[in-house]
Design a protein that fits this description.
Elements lengths: L1 H22 L18 H39 L3 H16 L1 H21 L1 H4 L5 H25 L1
Helix pairs in contact: 4-6
């Protein structure tokens, strides 16, 4: 008997609560101001996006020129008939660099992620700032990532 009462009472109470919840008006004030409490200040984007395009452009140019020079060097070495040991050493160095390319990009993305997390935790310091602190954090962690990559590269070659 009691179970039947509970089975009937619970849905009615739930419907009543749902109806009352829809009728009540709650006035919430927005305590978060998106213009003042930005995760990454505008100055970072003003400096960062042109720097990113410049770095990508320079990296592309350097990579294309390096690949062409390496290919021409290898062709000349094969044409001149240089010893097999020298050829193996030259090709081994270029293969080591190619194998570590994913590691380089992983370290860069990891450093950017860590720097964004630190910027997020330091957002109270960054309120109404110009963004140089955030840009400095990004550059420091990216520099550390490149340093780690080139140390690993030196050990592999």
């Amino acid at each position: 008997m009691r179970n039947k009462q509970y089975v009937l009472a619970i849905p009615f109470l739930m419907v009543t609560a749902i109806c009352n919840a829809q009728d009540t008006v709650v006035h919430n004030t927005l305590t978060y101001d998106p213009d003042k409490l930005k995760l990454i200040p505008d100055k970072v984007f003003e400096f960062g996006i042109p720097m990113l395009f410049l770095i990508l452009l320079l990296n592309t140019i350097v990579t294309v020129l390096k690949n062409r020079a390496d290919q021409q060097l290898k062709l000349k070495m094969v044409e001149k008939g240089i010893a097999d040991e020298t050829l193996i050493r030259v090709f081994k160095e270029s293969n080591a660099v190619l194998k570590l390319q994913p590691l380089k990009y992983f370290l860069i993305c990891l450093s950017l992620g860590i720097s964004f997390i630190i910027i997020h935790f330091c957002k109270e310091v960054l309120v109404n700032q110009s963004g140089y602190f955030a840009l400095g954090i990004i550059l420091v962690f990216t520099s550390i990532a490149f340093f780690i990559y080139y140390r690993i590269l030196q050990n592999k070659i």
